[in-house]
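User: Okay, second chain of the day. Same drill as before: sequence in, structure tokens out.
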Amino acid sequence: MTPSLFRTDTVPGVGASIVLDGPEGRHAGSALRIRAGEGIRVGDGRGAVADCVVTTTSPGRVEAEVVSRVDMPRPSPEVTVVQALPKSERSELAVELATEAGADRIVPWLADRCVSRWTGPKVDKGRAKWANAARAAAKQSRRAWEPEIGELVDSTALAALVASEVEAGACALILHEDGAAGFADAVTAGLPAPRILVVVGPEGGVSDAEIDLLTAAGARPVVLGPEVLRTSTAATVALAALGVLTPRWSDAGSTLDPTSPRHGK
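Assistant: Same drill. Structure tokens below.
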């Protein structure tokens, strides 16, 4: 079983001691009741990961010795999910699922037909909730890299982002039930690419005006599959497909061995 992962600001080298306190220490020592001699994993969310052996514990505090450490590269190609703001009860779920499925960056999009609207102080509050959801999901799924939560964009700003990414060689895809191409075919045609953008519309769908705007910027409307998915789950299905269609999964290593297959160990 993979050891529990805890976040730290820095990850020291082999032989060094590391202390978990605060929320991470309480989670390890009190909630999980980790004891001396057990193994844990720590990471900074920026690729550095270490396996450790617990040496001492006390309420709310765990000390461990680092026994192995690596710096994991980002998956390639990197995937940015542009997520239209879901209804409040599904907003953080969308981020959680996309994080567990491997999104490298998640950009909140205020699309024309969004029911949820982030304005004024709601923008910072919403992004903070998304960041917390991504952090928790990255820990749960033992990810070395936490996804970045981008700035909120409207459709005009999104078109500018798409144009910039496409100019830099990225493949930009809009998930749409009336797309002219299939998702798998579009991904294959767009490779090799340093990055892939997956645009997910809101509950009411992407408007015709937005399709025209994003298509003019270089994105392709594509059909992910025969089912019509919720906005909160579409990115997860797309990310799983990208794991198979690109080298993201085949090139991925286990957490502490970047050269070995992740599965079957």
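Helices lie at 22-31, 88-100, 121-140, 155-167, 183-190, 208-217, 231-245, 247-250.

User: Thanks, on to the next one.
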